[in-house]
Design a protein that fits this description.
Layout: H1 2-27, H2 78-86, H3 107-110, H4 134-137, H5 158-170
Helix pairs in contact: 2-5
């Protein structure tokens, strides 16, 4: 009888640990804090010298690669933010590519001039023009077509949306 009791206790503890861990993971939607993307080459979010959201650095790819040309007014964290929020399994990762769109690291270089599935001649990314870029308009409260992104996930915060807008605005045409 003590063996069965011990087994039930272990199962109950394991279940409680899994449920607690799962609840913590699900409740972490992520935010765009100054310290979330540290100035580390491995993070690919601004390189050395980044001092918070877009402070005096050029925008870089989300993988620590070469600069994309976004100026000091841009938000250098945007590529990493988009990759983190959108390039998830079953959505816009390299395997799934929903709507023919991969937003994995380096997306800001690969989607320039790519036609959007929103139609009407819309483009995924128009450097310097966020309002013409569906990568931006689809995360706003009233997207021009279909559903707001990320579909089925928590909406981006106003700060995160502004970061993407500032990044695109700072990209040279």
């Amino acid at each position: 009888m003590t063996f069965m009791t011990s087994l039930h206790r272990r199962a109950a503890l394991t279940a409680a640990a899994l449920l607690t861990g799962g609840a913590l993971l699900m409740s972490c939607a992520g935010t765009l804090d100054d310290d979330e993307f540290p100035p580390d080459e491995q993070q690919g979010s601004g390189g050395a010298g980044t001092q918070g959201v877009g402070a005096g650095t050029e925008a870089v790819t989300g993988s620590g690669g070469a600069t994309t040309g976004g100026g000091p007014a841009g938000c250098a964290e945007a590529p990493a933010l988009v990759t983190m929020k959108c390039a998830t399994a079953g959505c816009h990762d390299d395997s799934s590519k929903l709507a023919g769109l991969s937003l994995a690291a380096g997306w800001e270089n690969t989607v320039r001039g790519q036609a959007s599935t929103c139609g009407g001649g819309s483009m995924v990314l128009v450097p310097g023009d966020p309002d013409a870029s569906t990568i931006y308009t689809k995360v706003t409260p009233t997207p021009p077509c279909n559903s707001r992104m990320p579909f089925g996930g928590a909406a981006l915060s106003d700060t995160e949306i502004a970061c993407i807008r500032d990044f695109i605005t700072a990209l040279p045409p």
